[in-house]
Write a structure and sequence with these properties.
The chain is mainly α. It has twelve helices and no strands.
């Protein structure tokens, strides 16, 4: 046997088998991470997870499906009704995950994210009934992980967008956004949200600095979210304040 063949056999023993199957969750997560290359990967992720749920009730499958529905609502849905339907499905599956794993941070996060986005899409007045649920979920998230970056972003957006009479508080919103960025400086969604707040409070120079950091980010927490949502939003916001001091 030649030395080259021997080396090839040794290497083959340590390499993954080319036919080794990924789990549905692994497959779906890989597609979600690449949806900026092809948004239809989100549809494929949803379908593979729905198929998996027909034969198992694993919490990780449910959490990943709730996450997928959130992204479908943001990226794939073309009408308000389609968005609401996607977020509602994400809420439902997130609720089921919480029932099976009440101390799972990601289950609460994606339930809260879908609930919050459903409320944003529906409008504040028509979704007031969701406020107790969102506040309870955020309390649970912070009890599990006080430094949760996504949790602080959700809490910040709630405090930013609610009227003062309903608990809105821009100072608290800013605190939450900054806490999110302390935990994860590469979390471009939180940096865009902080910039939105800075613009709303007339601090345009600070907002420009934050938006420039978004666009200069080399290692975003989510490359797909950065490419499809956060960077375009940062450019829009910069354009909106180009003549303001």
């Amino acid at each position: 046997m030649s030395s080259i063949l021997k080396l090839a056999l040794v290497l083959a023993a340590f390499l993954p088998h080319p036919g080794a199957a990924e789990t549905p969750v692994e497959t779906a997560k890989a597609w979600i991470a690449r949806y900026h290359e092809d948004p239809t990967l989100l549809d494929r992720a949803r379908d593979v997870l729905l198929t998996a749920l027909q034969t198992d009730r694993q919490v990780d499958t449910m959490i990943t499906l709730a996450r997928t529905y959130f992204q479908i609502g943001d990226v794939r849905a073309r009408s308000t009704d389609e968005k609401l339907a996607a977020y509602e499905r994400g809420r439902d599956i997130g609720r089921r995950a919480i029932e099976l794993a009440p101390r799972n941070e990601d289950a609460h996060l994606w339930y809260a994210a879908n609930t919050g986005r459903w409320g944003q899409t529906k409008g504040v007045v028509r979704s007031l009934f969701l406020l107790p649920t969102l506040r309870e979920e955020l309390g649970t998230i912070f009890a599990i992980n006080p430094r949760s970056a996504p949790g602080h972003d959700i809490a910040g957006t709630l405090a930013f967008e609610l009227p003062g009479v309903l608990g809105g508080d821009r100072a608290k919103a800013e605190e939450h956004y900054k806490k999110a960025l302390e935990t994860d400086p590469h979390y471009t969604l939180a940096r865009v949200d902080l910039a939105r707040l800075l613009i709303a409070t007339g601090r345009h120079a600070e907002a420009r600095r934050e938006l420039a950091r978004v666009l200069d980010e080399c290692a975003p927490t989510s490359r797909s979210d950065f490419t499809v949502k956060d960077a375009p939003r940062a450019r829009e916001l910069l354009q909106s304040i180009k003549d303001r001091r």
